[in-house]
Amino acid sequence: MSRPPKIPAEKKLRIVLSVLQGEISIAEAARREKVSEQAIGKWKRQFLEGGKAGIEAGKSKPSTREQQLEDEVAELTQALGEAAVEIRVWKKSAEGRLGPSRTSR
């Protein structure tokens, strides 16, 4: 017995969506497409697992661009903190040599 021709992914998707929407049963889809019910079940499981993985990835892992922006924000925040410390040190140094400034209180 020869294998049936390979079914394109787009057609598998239409079949799985029809099953999920309740338009057709797995048994009926299998009969129409001349494949086993196990094959339809496998396509359905793969579709659902792929969708779940996509949703989980979207929630837990930022995109490359988002990660770049987060890294840049962290770097700029650190640089700003370092600059603020340097300004304080310079002000203290200047006060020691010139006396208290009018802006420091």
TrEMBL record:
Superkingdom of this protein's organism: Bacteria
SUPFAM superfamilies in UniProt: TrpR-like (SSF48295)
GO molecular function, one term: transposase activity
InterPro entries, sorted: Transposase_8, Trp_repressor/repl_initiator, WH-like_DNA-bd_sf
Positions of the UniProt region annotated as Disordered: 51-70
Stated name of the protein: Transposase
Gene Ontology biological process terms in this record: DNA transposition
